[in-house]
Write a structure and sequence with these properties.
elongated, mainly alpha, 2 helices
Length: about 100
């Protein structure tokens, strides 16, 4: 069974809605968020690995959608999930724990 980032987003928005309507506890919502972060981190590793070895050597799981083979006429993606792009740094991140 393939899970997708869209499924994760749906689950997170449902969790946020349930938290706001007091259907679940803050503790349970934090647990869902922790699991979601673990899934996101594993997807980042997958993307970094695909960048490093290419899709001919590593088959994507489909979590982040279909990947398109690199077009030699188009510049390669720079940086990784954990390293800044030269001259631009890391993308901004919202406050931790904000809904």
């Amino acid at each position: 069974m393939t899970h997708t980032v869209e499924e994760l987003r749906t689950a997170l928005f449902e969790t946020m809605r349930d938290l706001r309507s007091d259907k679940i506890s803050l503790e349970k919502a934090k647990g869902v968020a922790d699991v979601a972060q673990t899934i996101i981190n594993s997807a980042k590793v997958e993307v970094d690995m695909i960048k490093a070895v290419g899709t001919k050597r590593l088959r994507p799981t489909g979590f982040v959608g279909e990947l398109i083979e690199h077009d030699p006429g188009r510049p390669a993606i720079q940086g990784t999930a954990t390293q800044p792009v030269p001259g631009r740094g890391l993308p901004p991140v919202g406050p931790r724990g904000s809904l």
